[in-house]
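We modelled each protein-ligand pair independently. The example shown here corresponds to the adenosine-5'-triphosphate entry; the chain sequence is given first, followed by the ligand as SMILES.
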Amino acid sequence: MTGELSAQVAPAELGYEGALRPATLAEFVGQEKVREQMGLLLGAAQIEGRTPDHILLAGPPGLGKTTLSMIVAAELGVPIQQTSGPAIQHAGDLAAVLSSLVPGEVLFIDEIHRMARSAEEMLYLAMEDFKVDIMVGKGAGATSVPLELSPFTLVGATTRAGLLPNPLRDRFGFTAHLEYYANAELEGVLRRAAGLLDFPLEQAGIAEIAGRSRGTPRIANRLLRRVRDYTLVHNTAPDAESVNAALSLYDVDEHGLDRLDREVLRIIVDRFAGGPVGLSTLAASVGEEAETIEAVVEPFLMRAGLIARSPRGRIATSLGWSHLGRTPPPM
Ligand SMILES: Nc1ncnc2c1ncn2[C@@H]1O[C@H](COP(=O)(O)OP(=O)(O)OP(=O)(O)O)[C@@H](O)[C@H]1O
Ligand SMILES: [Mg+2]
């Protein structure tokens, strides 16, 4: 697993995630464009008394995909059923979920790019016509029986929109591309969370955490809780000084790089002389899954300008070299 403060959720954190999760579009901080687009989509459907188009939420971990799926259901005033791609191993798994939906319900499929192929094909028809074909019997005697479904809204989430087959992507009426948050937006996320946690962190401290949160609300909230722990245990003031002390204890550097980010950068620079190095070699060297490196670490390191992708693999930029206190070799 990635470091303590990475964008992935540890089971123990789930309670906090729930407590800090905004429940309405109005409470959802930042992502102005997505919020406005989504507001229109939901508003129009409500005026016409129909289910809205299916929604695809695409973007890196921790930016609010699960949160938005719950907001969709809350704004529409309908129940939500949640499942995930890896839980749908067969078309039958999906048929069971689809046939249990009540009219208008939101079906949230997380990591939708990891669903079984056979289920994917069933989903096409379900999304388009609210119907599925159930196969009954085996071999030559097998027949397909059509089954009508209640109208529903599918909300799919993926960290890897590129992996979705085109026919599936095309059946979503709206795709929200979630972008990393600007620091000012993260400050908004943090102010809201600090209020909910009853933690009067001063503005300079809020700004300091925002700058180290890798554009990610989940990380911002997590760092905030670690800082709060620190002030409780050491009985220090809720100020920027406590933030600095707490975050250096947790190995989050001034740019928000955590242990794993630095490890990836260090391996490219030290072991592969700055690269290029392929994804799988890199993953094996760090002892992490290639998917984690690709979905969590790389987008951040690239956005920070510390690494770049070349056709032959990942390379450290001169900024990447100097971030580690090293001098890049002459070109
Ligand atoms: N726009 C936002 N405003 C306030 N808080 C937010 C916002 N987006 C996310 N959060 C906070 O960040 C946490 C993580 O968000 P969420 O679980 O929705 O991310 P995700 O995109 O589903 O991540 P993953 O890809 O790992 O499933 C939430 O618990 C919520 O508290
Ligand atoms: Mg999620």
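Residues 65-66, 110, 157 surround magnesium ion (ligand 2) (CB under 6 Å).
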